[in-house]
Amino acid sequence: MTTTGRRVLLAAGAAAGATALVGCTSSGGEGPRRPGAAEREAERVARAEAALRARSVAVARGLLERYDAVLAAHPALAPRLTPLRRSVAAHVGALGEGGTGESAGAVEPAAASASSVPSASASARPTAAPSPAPVPVAADPGTALRELAAAERAASDRHTDALLAAPPEYARLLASVAASGAVHVHLLTEGARA
Questions:
Q1: Which region, left, alpha or beta, applies to residue 137 given φ > 0 means left and ψ of -120 to 50 means alpha?
Q2: Which residues contact 147 (CB under 8 A, 6 or more apart)?
Q3: pTM higher than 0.90, yes or no?
Q4: How far is Cα 135 from Cα 121, in angstroms, rounded to an integer?
Q5: Who's near 55: CB < 8 A, 6+ residues apart?
């Protein structure tokens, strides 16, 4: 065999090998690749975490709506409730992983004026669980505060219950939010007597 013949043969073999390699790598286009067990488990865990986050945000948004309703019904309570409401709005943003930060930005107008409180709750409503009716508020400010404290306690309990299913980083956040809620309960009840 001549040198030229060998070169032609080697070039033909290299081209055939390249074609075979391209065929192997492009055969994935024939149909979708089935995910492995690890990928399916990772997807399941991600869906469960997303559902947990959605539930946690819904709890925090519900509490935020209650604060807005109490502030709208009893504007004289604004100096006392505005810092607590601001904290709850921050919880909504933190628990929601970015997409819910818009309601945290609505805190400042609500703090400045009780008349803007309904618009803040309206901006929080589109991604929250739909509420059948406006949040009822007692006519007596003391009763309204006790009801708000009960709502804080219930939200704190729900965040605490969610700790068991949460991944470590999110569990720490939930624990912090639940502890903050417990402090809010104290400020709304015992703190009023001091």
A1: beta
A2: 66, 70, 137, 138
A3: no
A4: 11
A5: 158, 162
The tokens of 110 are what? 């609500």
Report pLDDT digits (tens) over 133-190. Answer: 688 999 999 999 999 999 999 999 999 999 999 999 999 999 999 999 999 999 999 8
> 56, 95 in Cβ contact below 8 A?
yes
The pLDDT tens digits of the residues spanning 26-80 come to 455 566 778 788 888 888 888 988 999 999 999 999 999 999 999 999 999 999 9
Q: Which residues contact 114 (CB under 8 A, 6 or more apart)?
A: 71, 72, 75, 78
Rounded to an integer, what distance in angstroms lies between the CA atom of residue 59 and that of residue 49?
15
d(CA 5, CA 1): 6
Q: How many beta carbons lie within 10 A of that of residue 15, not counting itself?
A: 10
Q: Considering all CA atoms of the chain, what is the largest pairwise distance in Å, rounded to the nearest integer?
A: 106
Where do we find the tokens 């991944």? Answer: 167
Distance separating alpha carbons of residues 56 and 156, to the nearest angstrom: 10
